[in-house]
Structure formats: structure tokens, C-alpha cells
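In response to reviewer comment 3 from the previous cycle, which asked for concrete evidence that the modeling workflow produces usable outputs, we include below a single protein chain processed end to end. The sequence was submitted unchanged, and the resulting C-alpha cells are shown without manual editing.
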Amino acid sequence: MLIHPWDAPHDDAEWQRWLAGHDFGQLAVSGPPGEPPEVQPLHFAYDAGRGEAVAHLARPNPLWRALEANPNVLLSVVDDYVYVPGPWQAAPDAPPEHGVPTSFYAAVQLRCHAHVVDDPDDKADLLNRQVGHFQPEGGSARAAAGEAPYGRMLSGIRGLRLEVTGVRAKFKYAGKRSDEVRDRIAAGLADRGGPGDAAALEHLLRRRGA
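The workflow returned the following C-alpha cells.
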């Protein structure tokens, strides 16, 4: 992922705040020689204090073989993306039709060392951490090895603890454009009001004022 200086996060807190509100991404694992990477969409729970994300997958998932061959993986999260029409981006002294279309998006990539979790008690703890993240209001029984209702199901899954070893983040929202062009883009996003436009507008205005 190319990250220009004007698209880089202003500090670690910026990407950490954004990631705290996002818990679905794609896990990329190197495939066998000559084969493309394995890519698995998945929910995860990121714990900034521990510097890790946790997830689980079904035991028959082909990703496990690739993980065991190379545990260095990439968890990619992308959101708040929109298409920006060319005329919105045209320079002030250029015709609108000469503007270059582009994409706006926010992205965080976590480089991780993957640890496979197979111990039943550890898997139960990992699952309880995930459920606690996604269902803070409760409503589901706790998982415990050998106990109903989930104990007998633990053998059908494997846990995944992703130890974060590096982070790359990008917020691509007209960072190098003039105030006049950014005003035009902001007006266009507000007027269009399509999927993702409100979030993109918020990023544009926030980063402009930082």
C-alpha cells in the first residue's frame, strides 16, 4: 500500500481510534510457492493493550496449512471509501472535465505473527473475549471446555491469536489539494449523500482542521 506523507496518520492515536470501531477485515496468508495468497474474511477483536487481535475459524479451513507454513500474516481493514468524480478534483484554473477521478478510503494493515490456539481452555477464553467484544450486553452463555452448551463444539474450531508486529495506516482524503478544491469536494459529498459519503466528509474535515 502506497502511503504519501499527506495521507499518513497524524499520530498513532488516529488509526487506533479508527480501528477501535472496525472489527471485520481480511486475513492474508502466504500461499504455497507459485500459488496466490490465501485470503480469509473474518471478524476479529483487537486489543490495543495486549497488542493483538483474536479470531477463530473452522478446523477444516484451508488457511491453517498456510499458517503453519508461514505464520507471518497481514490483517487488512478498509472502510469509509467513496468514489470522487473528476470535476470535483479539478484545479481552480482548469476546466472541470480535466479533473482526475479518485478514491477516498481509510485503511489499516496489521502485520502479525499468528499463534494457533488448540488448547480447549485457551480456545474457550479466546471465544469469551470475542463475544465480550461483540456482545458487551451479554445474552450468551460463556464457553467452557467440557461444559454445555459450547464445550463439545470447541473441537470443531481453532483459535487464532494475531500478535501485532507492525502497523501501516492510510487516510486518503484530499490531503494534498488546495482549500478551494477541498471545499468543492466537501460540498459534493454533502450534496450526494450516498453510502460512505458522510464518513468520508467527516475524515476530510477532521484532517483538514488538524
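The longest strand covers residues 102-117. We consider this sufficient to address the reviewer's concern, and the full set will be provided in the supplementary archive.
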